[in-house]
Design the sequence.
């Protein structure tokens, strides 16, 4: 259920535009305007005119906007909203979305939804090459941030994997430390970049409602068929715990496929056992997604309690309207803009003006 992407074309309202006070690093758009276009043109109003300026910024730690939040809370949507105002490129920090494949199951933002905003580390890692470790993500992420900043664009780090975000951002990364497990503080005050943290938060009961519907929509969009194709009965370690095979949906449906041919309930035959197994897999996916969201919020709170200055954006009302449907219709977008995008624009604007 990608409700938050349902309103084409993407164009921030004039209310939002008025919030946007232009900064020398991000001078005003040319006549084309940054907002009316649905295609991102990152170089059209270059925020750093010379590569010397970009190098200077890199040396003292590039400015990075980090969009955090539990699965499904609208991080991607917010990143595209911000990218329509600030010339930006997105660096994915969802540990399942870094892999190529299972686009529906891992809920990757689609090319159409990206509105031309360049995305990095999204579906670019071959799952057969093994598991993306936090330290590999740290070095690939650093290269991506450097590349974005050297092009004069704002790096937006977007994704729900807090261990990846932590590994990439901390000044000193210790491979051996279980940052969220032990008593050791996961977040020292020192970061490698000049970071602005936006935390999109949705109250858990409302988010869980949304996530349950999102799973139904993902199934309607072809998640089952995608997983059926991915399932390999000859695999020595079906449902194993490495890389992409950890994605929610894979182990749950592997158990189903082991007992039943990859045919969806209702596609011929009325096999009760099949139907029960299918419903069980869907129930497990919903439950595991719910647990993931709770764990992610726990990790975000931990980072905040250790000194990361997270700016919380409350998207609960927008989600309540979006999930409720009916009267919610177009209203959710106004609320989303008013309560999430608008405050984020102000925060990012201020952040970019800081020396
Ligand atoms: P952990 O330390 O538990 O791995 P993390 O913060 O590094 O947490 P998360 O993003 O919370 O990483 O992912 C934890 C697990 O949640 C993944 O191993 C996977 O099972 C599931 N998961 C995360 N993101 C997705 C996704 N986009 N699609 C499907 N499953 C996901």
Sequence:
């Amino acid at each position: 259920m990608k409700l938050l992407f349902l309103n084409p074309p993407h164009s921030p309202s004039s209310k939002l535009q008025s919030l946007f006070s232009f900064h020398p690093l991000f001078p005003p758009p040319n006549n084309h305007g940054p907002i009316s276009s649905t295609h991102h043109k990152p170089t059209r109003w270059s925020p750093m005119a010379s590569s010397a300026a970009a190098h200077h910024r890199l040396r003292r730690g590039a400015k990075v906007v980090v969009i955090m939040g539990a699965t499904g809370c609208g991080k991607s949507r917010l990143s595209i909203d911000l990218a329509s105002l600030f010339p930006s490129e997105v660096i994915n920090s969802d540990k399942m979305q870094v892999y190529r494949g299972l686009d529906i199951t891992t809920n990757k933002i689609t090319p159409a939804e990206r509105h031309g905003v360049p995305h990095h580390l999204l579906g670019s890692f071959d799952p057969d090459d093994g598991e993306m470790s936090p330290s590999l993500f740290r070095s690939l992420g650093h290269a991506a941030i450097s590349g974005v900043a050297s092009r004069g664009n704002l790096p937006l780090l977007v994704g729900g994997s807090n261990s990846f975000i932590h590994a990439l951002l901390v000044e000193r990364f210790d491979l051996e430390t279980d940052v969220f497990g032990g008593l050791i503080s996961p977040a020292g005050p020192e970061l490698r970049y000049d970071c602005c943290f936006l935390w999109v938060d949705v109250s858990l009961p409302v988010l869980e409602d949304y996530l349950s519907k999102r799973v139904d929509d993902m199934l309607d969009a072809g998640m089952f068929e995608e997983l059926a194709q991915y399932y390999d009965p000859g695999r020595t370690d079906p449902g194993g715990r490495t890389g992409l095979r950890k994605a929610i949906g894979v182990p749950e449906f592997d158990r189903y496929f082991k007992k039943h041919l990859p045919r969806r309930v209702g596609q011929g035959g009325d096999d009760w056992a099949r139907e029960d197994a299918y419903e069980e897999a869907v129930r497990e996916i919903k439950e595991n997604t719910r647990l993931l969201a709770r764990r992610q919020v726990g990790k975000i709170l931990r980072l905040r309690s250790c000194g990361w200055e997270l700016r919380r954006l409350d998207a609960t009302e927008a989600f309540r309207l979006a999930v409720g449907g009916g009267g919610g219709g177009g209203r959710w977008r106004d609320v989303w803009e008013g309560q999430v995008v608008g405050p984020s624009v102000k925060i990012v604007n201020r952040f970019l003006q800081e020396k």
